[in-house]
Amino acid sequence: MQYLHLDSDFTPFKTSINFEHFVFNGGEPHIKILEEVLSDHICITHRIQSFNDVGLILIATDALQRMGVKKIELFIPYFPAARQDRIMTKGEALSVKVYADIINAQGYDCVTIFDPHSEVTPALLNNVKVIDNHEFVKQAIKQLDGNRVLISPDGGALKKIYKVAQSIGEIEVIECSKQRDVKTGELSGFKVYEDSLEGKHCVIVDDICDGGGTFLGLAKELKKKGAKEISLIVSHGIFSRGYEALSEHFGHIITTNSFRDIEDQKIQQIKL
After folding, report:
1. Which of 131, 155, 174 is the last residue of a domain?
2. Count of alpha carbons within 13 Å of 117, Cβ hemisphere only?
């Protein structure tokens, strides 16, 4: 198999097929494969941060097919719109299905994703392969000292957290919850279902950190329960509001390079 890494900074496998790409003035992405493809089995990799990234994947797929490639796989660790997996209010789109339909239409032999937000995404994708977060969390938690317990940020994450705990070994899981206004997105009502966390190193594990509101709200409640230290492990680090507020509450923030590279001493990245 050969690999086509569309993001030159994200090369999780072997050497990439040479290509060039640019965006026309009208906003359309363009690609040109610069070498003969020696295999009829190609894996395209990319980190999706915008709809144009999806467009680049689509035209790269078409270019390879026109060069006679019969078998094409796709590796996109962060699946776009995975959080938009249900309709909360009238007038919304089921965005994850829109992206899944576009990907499915290409007829990939395999689509590999990393730690999707819920079971909806893999249910919608054809020929999907899911890489869970177990190995990543294992590597991350080894770097943390103290009497560690895993924190489930909400009920939706609880099932996944117990599977992580089982893969790690003997480690306690603490359940938490929050309330979200479906119209405004505002968070409130954070609760920690444990009387005391005195002397505990509380490790929140989740799939995505975007603005970080959930984790900031939980951190305050964990400290009220006496948590000695708090750390954050997230598979996909978007950090749209930066790291300053998070670093005030979390001694360690660990993520992967699934969404983008981060060069900041406050954040530790484990490469996929």
Report:
1. 131
2. 17
Strands (E), 107-242: 110-114, 128-131, 147-152, 173-180, 187-192, 200-209, 229-237
pLDDT on residue 180: 79
Sequence-ordered alpha helix ranges (H) in 109-149: 120-124, 134-141
Q: What is the CATH number of the domain that holds 93?
A: 3.40.50.2020
For the segment 173-188, the average pLDDT, to the nearest whole number, is: 81
Distance of alpha carbon 109 from alpha carbon 98, whole angstroms? 19
pLDDT of residue 169: 86
Q: How far is the C-alpha of 100 from the C-alpha of 203, rounded, in Å?
A: 32
Same domain? For 50 and 146 the reply is no
Find where tokens 């992405």 sit. 29
Structure-derived torsion over alpha carbons of residues 47, 52, 57, 58, reported in degrees to the nearest 10: 160
Residues 90-149 have pLDDT tens digits of 999 999 999 999 999 999 999 999 999 999 999 999 999 999 999 999 999 999 999 999
> What integer pLDDT is reported at residue 189 of this predicted model?
87
CA angle centred on 205, ends 181 and 172, rounded to 5°: 115
Domain range for 102? 2-131
Q: What is the CA radius of gyration of the chain?
A: 20
